[in-house]
What we know:
This protein is α+β, with helices and mostly antiparallel strands and 323 residues long. It is 16% helix and 46% strand. It has two domains: 20-167, Immunoglobulin-like (Sandwich); 174-297, Immunoglobulin-like (Sandwich). The longest helix has 24 residues, at 2-25.
Amino acid sequence: MKKTFRIFKIGVISGLLLFSLLTVFAPISSAAIIKVKPLITVTYPSSSENIVPNSGVLLIDLSTTFQLMGIGASFVETYSLLKDTSVSIELKVENKEDWIDASIDNPLPSMTLKDTEPKISTLKITVTENAPAFSLGKVTISATSKEQPGLFFGIAKETYFFDVSFIVGYWPVVKYEMPRGNLMEIGPLDTADFEIQLENLGNGITYVGIEPIEIPEGDWSINIASSVTLASPVQNKEGSKATVHLIIKPPYGFGFHNDRQNFKVKFTPQYLGLYDLKGQEETITFNIQSVGLSPGAGFEIPLIVIVLAVIGLFIYIYRRRIK
């Protein structure tokens, strides 16, 4: 009985030694009997930074770690030749919105089972004006490990998927057009009507403040809307356009006029409800010239007629006395 147990013990020890030697010295190209599953994790730091369309690149550091799990993981990490093998992880952008452009610097981080520090790659993101303001952008990344074969134990090929999220910022851009130009010549009794067409080219609902500045002295009259709200073209293309009118009336006192004056109007785009988020202010200058004879407000004509009549009467009386 003891002899049988001794033979069994020697056989077990010999088998383990042989197994260890074969595991250590087996050709890498051999097919493994047991494939150990790797665990890949990709993390990134949280950030309050928004990315504004057409205004730079958002850089996100990706930290990649690699370890084994399941049956045989401890043995491979401790005794197998694979413990010193460099394992490549392929990072790849798998899915994103059409308005996102994303790429990865260092997409093939390499590491061994002994590495304790993560490998760093960089995700570079840009967005277009079609990205809605303050929406949540998402890029799906895959992380795939390369298969590492061995005689008995090997490392399997595995793919994991991770979502990287970010917030889209506000891009305030408004286009201004004057179909009839910004120069007009009128008579003293006429009214100048400048048409101003506004179009929101940005990515969010935009409130445009309108303010006449450097108003000239005198009897010039100016009238224009104080604001206009433009919908986001991403959500409502038609509502992203509006028209305002600058109405100017020149002085119309009696006499001949040749008045020229400049008027400036300032436009300030802002995000509706968050007025500290402002775009670039636009100041447009309008030129107007009032040329012609004006009868005045109306009471001057009867007064002139009376004066002429009185003068005529005096002349008539004077001539009769001379005769």
